[in-house]
Amino acid sequence: MSEKFPEELRYTDDHEWASVSENIATIGITHHAQDALGEVVFVDLPESGKELSKGDTFGAVESIKAVSDLYSPISGKVIEINSVLSDEPGNVNADPYGDAWMVKIEVSDTAELEELMDVAAYKNLVDSL
Amino acid sequence: MKKIPLKKTPLYDAHVRLNGKIVDFGGWNLPVQYSGITDEHNAARNAAGIFDVSHMGELEVEGPQAEEFLNYLVTNNVAKLVNGRALYAAMCRENGKIVDDLIIYRLKERSYLIVVNAANIEKDFAWAESIARNYDVSLRNASDQYGQIAIQGPKALKILQKLCTDSLEDIGVFFAKRLSVAGIEALVARTGYTGEDGFEIYCQSKDAMQIWDSAIDEGAPHGLKPCGLGARDTLRLEAALMLYGNDIDESTHPLEAGLGWVVKWKKGDFSGRDFLVEAKENGLKRTLRGLKVDGKMIPRIGYEVLDSSEIVCGKVTSGTLSPTLGYPIALAYLPAEIQDGEKVLVKIRNKTIAAEIVPTPFYRRKK
């Protein structure tokens, strides 16, 4: 199991993470999110090219227990989706910060990145739950 | 808001010890899973699973008119029971709507045990008490005194037999026998909620842990695994066994739920009879049906079902991604004229997904 709170990522209070390089953000769900869901059986992702505003629902993660919407941490255009997840949804449990990245977004407003939580703030949020 | 402390079953410490993921299940602290829902589900289908069902309610009925009382209280024919025999039944209000579904065991002459759903214990007891006034019976809510453990799966018999000197093979399906399990006096019933062969063991609360631990010690080498509420739900849904609160409740009646087989018309009067006779004569407007759903998205409770012209024709009452079959399945109340094999649509969030009406159960074990 990968580490629970990678230092270099940014987080949302909906338990998504974002890894930003240049103007491309890679998005997934956190260790805490996958643990709360249990075994993930389906990941519903958008089409490449979809324009998202910050907070938009861009997909869903399903376990037997529950379904959880995915909310975009930032505004921008989806430039790539992780199509492996349609055959290997279990990657979300096995490697939430690695193999189970979900979408790559071309960020339209980098200022929005400042609004995301750093690891300390996110860890506080999870500890308070 | 005042917080009501969650109730613990006598096996709570075992769930913690086994790393169960404990959730609030209708006011009870119970494990939703241990090793994982699919893993536990497969253990029960291929080897055996052990379940803590101590939260279920137990009502004891005794007295000269116990049989007459129960025969009015429930839809099935209690007069058919011999000692050590059990039956499944619905308990209806006078208006035919389902108060609960339950199992009645005849322990001996004039003495019965009713096993009811955990969430309905108080309601059931109050309803049964209001009927019991008219009969010479005593009715007691003994739920707190009982522990209940289910061992289910093709290896359930072999595993449980190791804890018992009396032969379990002699206990037929829907029979029960009082015998010693791991040195503990218990009622062992060949019943269950998984679609597999198996047993439900009723004991005193204080003895539940010894039976649980002994069963795990003997069973683990044979593939027995502790199973949580998650696997309990996927197992029962594949077998199309009713979940009260989802598939049946006080807005449904037994005939439309497909429980006509436990409604006995010739036994005399029973609560709800007049309504059900009328419902039968008028013809059922809707019935609970099985759906085989395309894709991998899970049709969940409350999701709408649309007919071929995309008009809403019903709602999902239970749904899952069937671990055994590998596709999503669901139950839904649909217009009675819809035939098996017909295509409908299920609205899953913002998508409409094709589904086929299929006969239930979805899964039937090989004999």
Describe the structure.
The complex is a heterodimer of chains A (129) and B (367). Chain A has 129 residues and is α+β, with helices and mostly antiparallel strands. Chain A has one domain (10-107): RNA polymerase II/Efflux pump adaptor protein, barrel-sandwich hybrid domain (OB fold (Dihydrolipoamide Acetyltransferase, E2P), Beta Barrel), CATH 2.40.50. Chain A contains three helices and nine strands. Chain A has helices at 31-37, 91-94, 119-128; strands at residues 10-11, 16-21, 24-29, 40-44, 51-52, 57-63, 67-71, 76-81, 103-107. In chain A, the strands form two sheets. A six-stranded antiparallel beta sheet of chain A has the order 1-2-3-9-8-5. A three-stranded antiparallel beta sheet of chain A has the order 4-6-7. Chain B has 367 residues and is α+β, with helices and mostly antiparallel strands. Chain B has a domain at 285-358: Aminomethyltransferase beta-barrel domains (Elongation Factor Tu (Ef-tu), domain 3, Beta Barrel), CATH 2.40.30. Chain B has eight helices and 20 strands. Chain B has a six-stranded mixed beta sheet, sandwiched between helices. In chain B, α2 (37-46) crosses α7. The mean pLDDT of chain B is 97. The A-B interface holds A 38-39, 41-42, 44, 60, 62-65, 67, 89 and B 21, 32-33, 36-38, 230, 233-234, 295-298, 300, 320-321, 323, 349.
Outline the secondary-structure elements.
The complex is a heterodimer of chains A (129) and B (367).
Chain A: E1 10-11, E2 16-21, E3 24-29, H1 31-37, E4 40-44, E5 51-52, E6 57-63, E7 67-71, E8 76-81, H2 91-94, E9 103-107, H3 119-128
Antiparallel strand pairs in A: 1-2, 2-3, 3-9, 4-6, 5-8, 6-7, 8-9
Chain B: E1 7-8, H1 12-17, E2 21-25, E3 28-33, H2 37-46, E4 48-52, E5 57-62, H3 66-73, E6 86-92, E7 98-108, E8 111-116, H4 121-132, E9 138-141, E10 146-152, H5 156-161, E11 176-181, E12 184-189, E13 198-204, H6 208-219, E14 224-226, H7 229-238, H8 273-282, E15 286-293, E16 304-306, E17 312-321, E18 328-335, E19 343-348, E20 351-358
Parallel strand pairs in B: 1-3, 4-14
Antiparallel strand pairs in B: 2-3, 4-10, 5-8, 5-9, 6-7, 7-8, 10-13, 11-12, 12-13, 15-18, 15-20, 16-17, 16-19, 17-18, 19-20
Helix pairs in contact in B: 2-7
